[in-house]
């Protein structure tokens, strides 16, 4: 669907997210011919500088995040000509006149405000936009994560933003929902008859969802100290992936049909008790170690770190869903920094065969397993048992592999490319609704309270490993293993 003309305003336009993700994503869509010729990108920041000075900053900081194979200097120069810079104080409505001056006043032009700012500014910016007459019925606002620090702050943000914008105008972004493999998970489940009859407790043993990073906290220490892995990754990315794996078939792919089903999953998550909090949640923090053969420091030794910090860089959780489809099926979620590998994957492990008719023991059989890879490469892998060539009936595990990049030769869209297009088209399906956000916080908040009350330190783990030993014990108590531990050597 072709885009109508638009003015896209990036609050935090000179910040890290804009330079690493948003501006490169917009360039990619311009190169693909998606952006109307007269569309404007207006970057907002606090620092007074000329448009030429800001473009120089864009050249220095955003250009390096564009794939060299897709970079075209002529397209880049044309794209940069779209960019305008406005200096204002986002918290002070009296400084907004330069923004009023550059925005075009026409009902034919889509107006989007993207708030790539700390969440403490969300409500203030929205009210200031309203005070300056910039928030119209056609306006859309995009809220970046983190959407609050807890349930109370999330509710407050929702309440204050909704005083200015209707729910249909608010786009709460979670970039994992824009990933190609997540879209393919929807297609796999609801576009094929093969898996859906098996997608239930009678046939599935467990589900594992992992988002692991080799990188440490880097230059995000200021943010990470106030967030930690639970707020940064578990409350949003991992729970959204769980929802898509576990939800019932929606009536259609319309926004509320999909989001209604995701909300049902969140509300069906079994609440934590004092006992299950101690047993089913593991918190860790990386220590010094080696990643890819390179020595790296402990979290507490990183630049600007608190030497006594108890901020978690690793979380593993056992979740349970109280529905007929999923009763008794454990969902294991984990995320961490300075891990042994950089990956994001969903592992759906099916139950073992009930009886072997072959001479070898059933203990040598590996359960069938579906692996949905989200990064570093999108793809699907189905693990089966097959006969080895030669005399006799000997079985061994084999893999059926689907590499999306190899199968589909067309250029692939980055998650932010897809989500920005959806915002500009007014398509809400891949964005969180307010009740979804609050339901996710409601499930996670007991973990935060438990950690605060207990006051215990996160468990240490060496950089370059798969987290604390307690993570293996968490899943091992159920007679299971994380996928990398279960793989044959």
TrEMBL record:
Residues annotated for substrate binding in this entry: 175, 179, 213, 232, 337
Keyword 4Fe-4S: no
Span of domain Glucose-6-phosphate dehydrogenase NAD-binding: 9-184
The protein's enzyme class: oxidoreductase
InterPro entries: G6P_DH, G6P_DH_AS, G6P_DH_C, G6P_DH_NAD-bd, NAD(P)-bd_dom_sf
SUPFAM superfamilies in the record: Glyceraldehyde-3-phosphate dehydrogenase-like, C-terminal domain, NAD(P)-binding Rossmann-fold domains
PROSITE patterns: G6P_DEHYDROGENASE
Pathway per the UniProt entry: Carbohydrate degradation; pentose phosphate pathway; D-ribulose 5-phosphate from D-glucose 6-phosphate (oxidative stage): step 1/3
Record: residues binding NADP(+): 46, 145
GO terms for MF: glucose-6-phosphate dehydrogenase activity
EC number in record: 1.1.1.49
Reactions catalysed: D-glucose 6-phosphate + NADP(+) = 6-phospho-D-glucono-1,5-lactone + NADPH + H(+)
PANTHER family: GLUCOSE-6-PHOSPHATE 1-DEHYDROGENASE, GLUCOSE-6-PHOSPHATE 1-DEHYDROGENASE G6PD
Family: Belongs to the glucose-6-phosphate dehydrogenase family.
Protein name per Swiss-Prot or TrEMBL: Glucose-6-phosphate 1-dehydrogenase
Species the sequence originates in: Herminiimonas glaciei
Gene giving rise to this polypeptide: zwf
